[in-house]
Amino acid sequence: MLETMLALKNNDMRKIPGYDPEPVEKLRKLQRTLVHNSGAGRETQLRVSLESLLNADQVGRWWIVGSSWSGAPMIDSTSSKTQQKLPVGKMSSKILELARKQRMNTDIRRNIFCVLMSSEDFLDAFEKLLKLGLKDQQEREIVHVLIDCCLQEKTYNPFYAYLANKFCEYDRRFQMTFQFSIWDKIRDLGNLSTITFSNLVSLLAHLLKTKSLSLSVFKVVEFSELDKPKVHFLRQVLYILLIKTDLEELTSIFGRLTDNPKLGMLREGLKLFLSHFFLKNVQAHKSAEEASLLKDRVELVNRTLQARESRLKL
């Protein structure tokens, strides 16, 4: 290395180990030939026959550096692939611009965002996200980006809820990350916009209905110190859950709370909320028929919670 550096410093190429001056001299001669326009020498002539030119599609353009045999069918395929990739490239630039606006400020978040935006459906998105091969903290970004995208939609898009459900079914670690993320959103309800608030209600109601998450997600709520955003949020989530879930599933969803003795305070808090905050509001703002239906559902929930509690005491 030292000899090479000294040779370069002194402009003495001959002292460089392994230096071969022949290629350089050959290029110099070729350059002089071209500059003086003395006609192309034999070294510049392409030894390509007319037959090779005429059959280039079959035998390939071997005289081009880096070229190989392609054949007509493959040439057509390559052409069609190029045409197919052009719209994708344009779309990708638009998605990347949208990612910038959505503050996807790392490569991982941008990759996840682009998969979400370009997938055909939630199953396609699920497979592509798994193929990213993310680990640990990187993997959690899937949940964070998914929730952010869902909440920022102008109108609620169930695509994100079905994808979230798929991840929760796939591995419990995703379920836990969703729960922690929802907890953060519940603590910050007062700062959410109307659209974000509404999308969060729909997302959580779906995850509860499909049992992707359990009602223990509400254990961060202090039922003795409820503010208006939390009351409004709980009313909407519980309304969707009670009105759109069949009786058997409803019993199962609320029954899961009694499987854990440590959730006694949450059970009491929910019963109190349903009786004093939920039903009174329903009777004041819903039709008599709907109010009666919801009253029956609340009574079923209370019986479920009470029956399970009695078993635990025994």
From TrEMBL:
One of its GO terms (biological process) is ribosomal small subunit biogenesis. This is Nucleolar protein with MIF4G domain 1. PROSITE patterns: MI. One of its GO terms (molecular function) is RNA binding. GO terms for cellular component: nucleolus. InterPro entries: CWC22_splicing_factor (IPR050781), Initiation_fac_eIF4g_MI (IPR003891). It is found in: Nucleus. Coiled coil: none annotated. PANTHER family: CELL CYCLE CONTROL PROTEIN CWF22-RELATED, NUCLEOLAR MIF4G DOMAIN-CONTAINING PROTEIN 1. Pfam families: MA3. The keyword Nucleus applies. Residues 107-223 form the MI domain. The gene is NOM1. Keywords: Nucleus. It comes from Chelydra serpentina (Snapping turtle).
